[in-house]
Every structure is written in structure tokens, then in C-alpha cells.
Design brief:
By secondary structure, the protein is of the alpha+beta class. The chain has helices at residues 2-36, 38-44; strands at residues 50-59, 75-78, 95-105, 109-118, 121-125, 128-133, 139-147, 150-160, 166-172, 178-184. It contains 2 helices and 10 strands.
Length: 202
């Protein structure tokens, strides 16, 4: 039984790494297409609400959400399509990933962020902690923030100790519109993109 469990774990890790590599190739294609054929990409890919989006991937086992500033990333890169995704993760568990980019805010006003994750997560907007779920297991938080129009720095941190990773990020404006930025399980989720005050993924 132990041998079978080890083989399953090795297979799952190999699959996660393969999906991550495929995703990297797709992102490189999108980035190149945006430069060489912007009109084609405009027709195929909905505009994202996050620009200059990047990620840093970490491998370790945590019981609570770590302080990322003191960690050394195993890998890092940019996300050309501007969508938060767990696709860069090289494994499903014993890992963490931090995203940083700028949120397009179309008009000044109050915006509500709702994050659900399994395991922990932390959202920072303009370098201020909006909310966090620090423990293992599923948890969520919902907070409203007043934002000025323009580009606003946004950072999202997430870790998965074990089990099926989950990260859902929703953003709604004062008019009650709500869009999913990320609704993903596991390492290579399928994207469902929106373009109001947030973008969606399934």
C-alpha cells in the first residue's frame, strides 16, 4: 500500500508539473501574440482587470499562512493574460504562491472583495491588508474598500498544505456587480474570463 501511495503521489506531482509547463508555453504564446497580432488577441481574449501581474511560487509545508517577505521563491514569472490562476504551481500541496499586479479601477467608489480559500490566503490592496484566512482548511472573508480611479496595487497570497487546492476571488462594485477572478481546482484550472471590476475563472 505504501508503494502504491508513493506512486500515486509521484504521478500527481508529475502531472501538476506538466500542466504548469504547458501553461507557461500558453502564456508565452499570448505574450508574443499581444506584441505581433494585438487585434487577433483582442478578439480572442477578454481584457483583464489586472495588469503587470506576476507570481512567485514556493515549496514547503506550513500549518498557517506564512510571511512571504522572508521566503525564497522556487520559481517566478509573469502572467500575460492578467488572470489570477494556480496554473503556475508545480504541485497541489505543500506549496504557496503569491500574486502581485495592478487592478484597473474604472471609477472611484467602494469595492467589495470576497476571498474563499483552502487553505489560507491574504489580500492586500495598496499595501494594506484587506482580509486574511490564516489557518488550514476552508475559510473566507469579505471586505469593502474605497478605491480611487486608476491603477491600484494588489497582492494575493495563498498556501495549500494538503488536499485539493481552492482559491476563489470575487470583486463587486457599489452597484452590486460581482465578478469571479479565480475559481480554481487544482493546478491547471479552466478559465472563464470577465471584465468589469474583476475577471473570472472557473
Amino acid at each position: 500500500e505504501r508503494r502504491e501511495a508513493d506512486e500515486r503521489a509521484l504521478k500527481a506531482a508529475s502531472e501538476a508539473e506538466l500542466h504548469a509547463r504547458i501553461w507557461e508555453i500558453e502564456q508565452a504564446f499570448v505574450a508574443q501574440a499581444r506584441t505581433q497580432s494585438p487585434e487577433l488577441v483582442k478578439d480572442l481574449v477578454a481584457p483583464a482587470d489586472l495588469v503587470e501581474l506576476g507570481y512567485r511560487f514556493y515549496r514547503d509545508t506550513w500549518d498557517t499562512l506564512p510571511e512571504f517577505d522572508g521566503l525564497r521563491a522556487e520559481s517566478e514569472g509573469t502572467i500575460a493574460d492578467g488572470r489570477i490562476t494556480l496554473a503556475p504551481a508545480l504541485r497541489r500541496d505543500a506549496m504557496a504562491i503569491a500574486f502581485a499586479g495592478k487592478l484597473r479601477v474604472p471609477a472611484a467608489g467602494e469595492y467589495t472583495f470576497r476571498v474563499t480559500s483552502d487553505d489560507g490566503s491574504r489580500l492586500l490592496v495598496s499595501s494594506q491588508v484587506v482580509g486574511e484566512h490564516r489557518q488550514c482548511g476552508e475559510g473566507s472573508f469579505s471586505e469593502s474598500v474605497k478605491l480611487a480611479a486608476g491603477l491600484v496595487p494588489l497582492r494575493l497570497e495563498y498556501f495549500s498544505r494538503s488536499g485539493e487546492p481552492r482559491l476563489d476571488v470575487l470583486l463587486g462594485d457599489a452597484a452590486g456587480r460581482e465578478d469571479a477572478q479565480e475559481r480554481q481546482r487544482p493546478a491547471h484550472g479552466l478559465q472563464e474570463l470577465g471584465a468589469v471590476a474583476g475577471a473570472g475563472e472557473q
